[in-house]
Design brief:
Helices cover about 35% and strands about 20% of the residues.
């Protein structure tokens, strides 16, 4: 897809953007599917290492693409590696991936509590926020179905599925914050695909 879909200006650099379709449950490959927003920032080195560097944001819920992609495209000198392709993806349920498990109901409740004209008590404000979470959870359950599939086990399987879809062999993996937990699951579930691992802020 056009990188503008992910709010990225490629600035003439070698960047590919798109979606990788994966099973919602990897144990059920013919079941419902989800789409993972994925960006490849190609190495600009004369001698490119065969293992790409997969970069995972924290949260859980943070967007790797929104947090890192434009900066790494615009400022190659800030890339953690110049001799490797960089692969960023929005983990299942997050931001540019589809479905995105976003909760405008909660933001609305928080805004109401902040601009309180009814002089609500703290307990009432907390209840207002809880109502927002309930409404969001009910809506997502209707729209998405099996919300329990949005978990770290499936997330680690997604990394391997993206690797396969992009036709890479082994990979290097960098995870920050929650990305370090994801990295540990990846080491347990798919150790053979890993060339190197960086766990930053466990």
């Amino acid at each position: 897809t056009d990188c503008n879909v992910f709010q990225i200006k490629t600035e003439g650099r070698d960047v590919e953007c798109g979606f990788v379709t994966v099973p919602r449950r990897h144990a059920d490959p013919t079941g419902p599917a989800i789409r993972l927003a994925t960006v490849i920032i190609k190495s600009d080195a004369e001698k490119r290492a065969p293992e790409p560097l997969f970069i995972a944001q924290g949260g859980p819920g943070g967007s790797s693409i929104k947090s890192f992609a434009q900066l790494l495209v615009s400022s190659p000198q800030l890339r953690p590696a110049r001799n490797r392709d960089l692969v960023l993806w929005d983990q299942r349920g997050t931001f540019f991936s589809r479905p995105a498990l976003l909760c405008p109901e909660v933001s609305k409740a928080e805004l109401e509590a902040m601009t309180d004209t009814k002089n609500l008590s703290e307990t009432e404000k907390d209840e207002l926020q809880r109502d927002g979470y309930r409404a969001c959870g009910e809506r997502l359950a209707r729209e998405v179905g099996d919300l329990s599939a949005f978990n770290t086990v499936e997330n680690a399987n997604d990394v391997n599925a993206i690797r396969q879809a992009l036709d890479y062999g082994r990979i290097a993996f960098y995870g920050v914050s929650y990305g370090t937990e994801l990295g540990q699951y990846l080491m347990r579930q798919h150790p053979a695909i890993l060339h190197a691992m960086v766990l930053d802020a466990v």
